[in-house]
Specification:
heterodimer; A: mainly alpha; 76% helix; globular; B: alpha/beta; four-stranded antiparallel beta sheet; 13 strands; 36% helix; elongated
């Protein structure tokens, strides 16, 4: 341990440096690091990967109950991901409030909107990563099925893959938005699932809610690239689940006093 | 240089900070002294943009903190050593701060060595003692090679050796031209570290100035068998006083107008018998501070 500070350590005798603003890519890189470098976050990502791979066994072991098509396998890959990916998104936005490390983050970059933007960008990158992993898992599943002597119908078009990517990113943003708004991990996760279940139940009673608000319906059209006539429904549900809570969350983040 | 002008903040209409103006010069250590709950942390958080003041301004080197392009290159902070992710290692925590600030990764190792955490660098922060977190917090504050430091209760959780180390470090920093603002609720802690002192109570500044001036005995103790007559005489002569210790009165002599001779004259003119008249032995600052904290503790006791 050194008790005396060298000039180099302090840096205050050096010519006053006037470093520019923190470049946005650097903020994104830091947020990516924070989302992936702790034991808890790694376990969550491993859980996403394992459950995706695990789900892939279902259409292989029970061929009668699943479409034996490429897109059918891709759907299966999305089942586990769509539950856990939003949780990743929630935690990316709430984690620092829960651990109170926002004190450090917002003093290193006081323009809080840039921090929020960096977190959203990093979340979209992670969502894309999950989509790529889903694609790889699907390919492995299809490969296994073929090896067992089954022939799968169809191919995967660019549209199928884009639909899958958009579907995951929308679900990621759904988590991100509610995390940004509620700023508490436990509250946001509980609210996310409670709201989804409530809306799904109400959707069975009211087609208005089912077709315009329930993302289990509207975003599934995105997954199946079934855009015909559904653009307004997809837009409205995205407005309700992503745009409005994310905007409100950004405003709340900018205004909140960090105690 | 850190300055604030009339910083004011209320929570739910309860004033927490009232008209606090500070001025911390390069090359000095300013101690910000007050009882727990006096408004120190809120003031420091207003300086660095974490809390928005209702009124007033704060600047670092003439600019509001939130307008600094890369603030940690200008001012380093340790505001709450427990506000770190417990699952990240000390080295990882510091690396993230270094990345944000845009300094060379080598600086992380250098700082770990400086604060004596090299051996514990790979351990998770959740396993650290408060003192170790405090050291990590100091390293984090220094990461951007700042010219100023703002530290909230930096001595918290440190052992005596750690406290001595911290003092040396801060003195060194100031001697190299750095500006230091540190808060504490312990008078002797600030006394041993600071050159300038700002004392606050219930959110307002009650004393400020050079430590030496504030520590100089500036009160006169005067005692009479008839305290009421003595008090009346002082009021008539327009001399400020406070009751105590015991049945004696303490007179403020800081302006130089009031001396023991003047007081003797007032007593003679009003025919009040004096049994004691002398410069106070206890220093005024300590008395002031203890009376403030005691008053605070008393009101808290009543509230509880």
């Amino acid at each position: 341990m050194t008790t005396s500070l060298s000039r180099g350590t302090l840096g205050i005798d050096a010519a006053p440096s006037s470093p520019g603003p923190i470049p946005f890519p650097r903020l994104v890189r830091v947020e990516w690091t924070k989302a992936t470098d702790t034991r808890a976050s790694r376990w969550l990502l491993v859980l996403v990967a394992l459950s995706t791979a695990g789900m892939m066994l279902a259409p292989i072991l029970a061929p009668a109950r699943f479409d034996q098509t490429y897109t059918g396998y891709l759907d299966v890959a999305s089942i586990a991901q769509v539950i856990l990916v939003p949780v990743v998104g929630i935690l990316m936005l709430t984690g620092e409030w829960s651990h109170r490390s926002v004190i450090t983050t917002f003093t290193q970059e006081p323009r809080r909107i840039r921090v929020v933007s960096a977190k959203v960008t990093a979340a979209l990158m992670l969502g894309s990563g999950a989509a790529v992993f889903g694609g790889v898992a699907t390919a492995a599943g299809v490969g296994l099925a073929s090896a067992s002597g089954r022939t799968l119908e169809g191919t995967l078009s660019v549209g199928d893959i884009t639909g899958y990517l958009l579907y995951l990113l929308l679900n990621m943003l759904g988590g991100v938005a509610i995390g940004a708004l509620l700023q508490s991990s436990a509250t946001a996760i509980a609210a996310y699932f409670a709201l989804n279940i409530t809306i799904a139940l109400l959707g069975t009673a009211s087609t208005l809610i089912g077709d315009w608000i329930d993302t289990a319906t509207t975003w599934t059209w995105v997954l199946y690239t079934d855009w015909g006539g559904h653009v307004p429904q997809v837009a409205v549900s995205t407005l309700v689940w992503v745009v409005i809570p994310l905007a409100a969350g950004a405003v709340r983040t900018l205004r909140r006093d960090v105690g | 240089m850190i300055t604030t002008t009339a910083l004011t903040k209320s929570y739910q209409r309860m004033p927490v900070v009232r008209d606090i103006s500070l001025r911390c010069e390069p090359g000095t250590i300013t101690g910000f002294l007050g009882a727990n709950g006096a408004g120190k942390s809120t003031t420091l958080k207003m300086i660095v943009g974490l809390v928005r003041p209702d009124r007033g301004t704060a600047t670092i080197d003439g600019r509001p903190f939130v307008e600094l392009p890369n603030p940690t290159r200008v001012v380093g902070m340790l505001l709450d050593a427990s506000a770190m992710h417990p699952g990240r290692s000390g080295r990882a925590t510091l690396t993230i701060a270094a990345q944000m600030a845009g300094v060379h990764p080598r600086r992380v190792e250098h700082l770990l060595d400086l604060v004596g955490l090299t051996d514990a660098a790979e351990k998770r922060v959740g396993t650290y003692s408060l003192g170790m977190r405090q050291r990590l917090g100091v390293a984090q504050a220094l990461v951007g090679e700042p010219q100023a430091l703002i530290l909230d209760e930096p001595a918290n959780g440190l052992d005596p050796e750690g406290i001595a180390w911290m003092r040396t470090l801060l003195r060194d920093f100031a001697d190299h031209g750095g500006t230091v603002l540190l808060s504490s609720h312990l008078l002797h802690e600030v006394q041993a570290t600071a050159d300038h002192l700002v004392v606050i109570s219930n959110g307002a500044v009650v004393a400020a100035g050079r430590l030496d001036d504030l520590l100089a005995s500036s009160t006169i103790l005067v005692r009479s068998p008839d305290p009421a007559a003595l008090a009346a005489a002082l009021r008539a002569a327009q001399i400020d006083y406070v009751a105590g210790p015991g049945d004696a009165l303490t007179v403020d002599a800081s302006g130089g107008r009031v001396t023991t001779e003047v007081l003797a004259g007032v007593a003679r003119d009003h025919q009040v018998l004096l049994t004691e008249l002398r410069q106070s032995e206890t220093n005024g600052l300590e008395q002031l501070f203890f009376s403030l904290t005691a008053a605070k503790a008393a009101t808290q006791g009543v509230a509880a």
